[in-house]
Amino acid sequence: MNPGLGIREGAALHFFGKMSASISHEIKNVLAIINENAGLLEDYNLMAERGSPVGPGRLKALADTIMAQIRRADAIVKNMNRFAHSVDEEKRAFDVGDILELVVALSSRFASVRGVELKMRPRSERLSVVSYPFFLANLLWLALDFAMGEVGKGKTVELVAEKSGEGVVIRLTRLEALENSPDAGFPGEREDALLQTLGAGLSVDHGEGRVTIELPAEIGP
Amino acid sequence: MLLDDEEDFLEAMSQRMGARGMEVRTTTYPNEALKMAEEEPFDAVVMDLMLPEMDGLQVLQELRRINPRLRVILLTGYATAEKRAEAKNLGAVDLVEKPADIDILTHRIRRVGGNRMEQDTPEKGDEGRLARKL
Fold first, then answer.
1. Which CATH number fits domain A7-85: 3.40.50, 2.60.120, 1.10.287, 1.10.3470?
2. What is the pLDDT of residues B91-101, one digit of tens each?
3. Fewer CB within a 10 Å sphere, N or C end of chain B?
4. pTM (2 decimals)?
5. DSSP category for residue B101
6. How far is B113 from chain A (nearest CA, A)?
7. Interhelix angle for B7-19 vs A7-49, to 10°?
8. B108: which residues sit within 8 A by CB, 6+ positions away?
9. Rounded distance between C-alpha atoms, residue A5 and residue B61, angstroms
């Protein structure tokens, strides 16, 4: 934790650093793939100069790979941009589903490294609240990070966001290993600080293998 | 052996190394890499630090346990002096930052693998080798 910062601010900085590092790692991977494929083009050119031209099929395959990686990098940068803009205004109206989608996208590499699949149930309506999008993203990341450690044999976390009364509820389910960890230490002080800021509630159901976050429609001043 | 979770990276790098006279096997799975290391005598392993389901440094330690003479070169998106020192303490011969220069990488592989590699650049007739996914 950074000295001199509150728990919430420390959690926020940690979240920002972790996501930024992950995004930069993904972009490096994309650059590495484009680098190798550009190098392969150089190799093909060298072979052609020495009298062994390469067929058009291989050149097209190379072009397709490079274009796919460019589309991938574009999606990564778009998510980075959405993440960066989540702090534009501290408190504002936004769609909870959008923030959940962003967090799932930012978490995909972490999930892949842990061998976990993230499945988000499609939503049928807009889930508008007035709150702090960045702090909600932070809380969702912490919940997801915890959830990825509590998956069962299916190695899947299912996420759903839906209306609940005036507010919105977010559920992370299929956490079968929760049954065997009655004292998981979650939520901790970081989560509690964020919950207080968001006016939200969080419960862990060990029997059902589920984490539930309840958000009010609008937080107070 | 090339170990990385990016298939497109493995495809292109293995073709380029093949064209430079190296026999290459690839995998995206750490457990499969360990199995391959037990079954075949590799001169060198080039692997990413960030891997699915198993920490890259843990894979490095396991590879070295299976074959203490195995030379392992690590690839990372962000090479720091601390990471390099930690990797070398655990038995890696080098830590290279992505995207890597193929000539520098193959030079380092040849340096650790002895005199078995001969070519520096693709020669005429290498098209077959370039086309083969190993």
1. 1.10.287
2. 998 888 999 99
3. C
4. 0.85
5. P
6. 22
7. 40
8. B73, B93, B94, B96
9. 38
